[in-house]
Amino acid sequence: MAATHALEATELVKTYPAGRKKPPLRALDGLTFAVPEGVVLGLLGPNGAGKSTTVKILTTLSRADSGTARVAGYDVAKQQDAVRRAIGYVPQKSSSDPMATGVENLVLSGRIFGLSRQDAVRRAAELLERFDLTESADRQVRTYSGGMQRKLDVALGLVHRPRVLFLDEPTTGLDPEARADLWNEVGRLAGTEGLTVLLTTHYLEEADRLAGQLAIVDRGKVVAEGSPEALKAELRGDSVHVELVDPDADGTVQRLLSGLPGLGEIVVEGNTLRARVDRGATAVPAVLGALEEKAIPVSAVTVSRPSLDDVYLRYTGRSFKSAEKNAGNEEGRAA
Ligand SMILES: Nc1ncnc2c1ncn2[C@@H]1O[C@H](COP(=O)(O)OP(=O)(O)OP(=O)(O)O)[C@@H](O)[C@H]1O
């Protein structure tokens, strides 16, 4: 069945019980997005934003309280078997058997998906080649590096030739080189093989690099959607970041700068001040002058083109870093 969209989520709501006498936690609060075939969709959000809950619903491991979702054209609530056949799922934790070899893991997985022994062996060889693991095919997986294990995990998700692949935080814990290697592999899968990929991540750089389309998730909702380039291009002008020597405890800096012309979206978090300006070259002297006049010491200033962090800030009112930091302490969102 040809799908207009390979992935489609409409107004998904999911609540979890939050314990005695507490209102239920609203993990998804009307989450909506749509992705055409062959695109890498990045679901970007801090811990607790609702990414894993979304993936669980789309892979039929969990049910939404309300709303609908379709994967490869199939309804996740009503056509679960068809959805399961159409998807590959690479969980955060490896599903390979560390005591078995790479090729044994792949062949077993192929057999579970119903391939004949001969087809499973052929598919395993193809995938080992594809992920540059042929030389290590006969070694136990426990001897693999982190990057090799992750590549094998992705290969395991592809054994049955799915149309949509789910990657849950695929590069967490990998060193920069292994991360870049996996980024190349994933980019190739979508680019040359027409696979649709849903990738969850809390790395801004990963989202920027890999996602053809990005959905920024915050508190159970998609707050912004588009290609990373388009989202950044919507923010005109420059970003100014000022590191203050002391935190702006009483809001003096915020008030002071709010009065300056040409400065918008001023956010002060601890020692860091961020603002959007039409032109960095003219705004910086004005900002520094105003701070100096009030004897507020500054340790560093940078001017840059808008980043995804600025996009996040624009739509949520907080920086990505502070949202990550606070995610663990948050009381949760009452339903
Ligand atoms: N089984 C559960 N029972 C109760 N609360 C849950 C359950 N699963 C998730 N939650 C809560 O729902 C919210 C969304 O969680 P979810 O795991 O979807 O977020 P996430 O964006 O994937 O974060 P992470 O990057 O940490 O996996 C969080 O506040 C989380 O604590």
What radius of gyration results from the CA coordinates? 23 Å
Shape assignment: elongated
Structural class: alpha/beta
Mean pLDDT: 89
Q: Major sheet: size, sense and barrel closure?
A: 6 strands, mixed
Fraction in beta strands? 25-35%
- Please give the alpha-carbon distance between the first and last residues: 37 Å
Q: What's the count of strands?
A: 14
In CATH, the homologous superfamily of the largest domain goes by the name P-loop containing nucleotide triphosphate hydrolases
The number of helical elements comes to 12
> Uncertain segments of ≥5 residues (pLDDT<50)?
330-335
Order of helices and strands: EEEHEEHEHHHEHEHEEHEHEEHEHH
Give a concise summary.
The chain is α/β, with parallel strands linked by helices and 335 residues long. The chain is built from twelve helices and 14 strands. It binds adenosine-5'-triphosphate.
Note down, in words, how this protein is organized:
The chain has 335 residues and is of the alpha/beta class. The protein folds into 2 domains: 7-232, P-loop containing nucleotide triphosphate hydrolases (Rossmann fold, 3-Layer(aba) Sandwich); 236-305, Alpha-Beta Plaits (2-Layer Sandwich). The chain has helices spanning 51-58, 80-86, 102-112, 117-130, 146-158, 176-193, 204-210, 228-233, 252-258, 280-293, 308-316, 320-327; strands at residues 7-16, 25-35, 40-44, 66-71, 74-75, 87-90, 164-168, 196-201, 213-218, 221-226, 238-244, 263-269, 272-277, 298-304. The chain has a 6-stranded mixed beta sheet, sandwiched between helices. Helix 3 packs across helix 4 and helix 5 (146-158) runs parallel beside helix 6. The protein is elongated. The model is unreliable at 330-335 (pLDDT under 50). GO terms for molecular function: ATP binding; ATP hydrolysis activity. It is a peripheral membrane protein. Pfam families: ABC_tran, DrrA1-3_C. One of its GO terms (biological process) is doxorubicin transport.
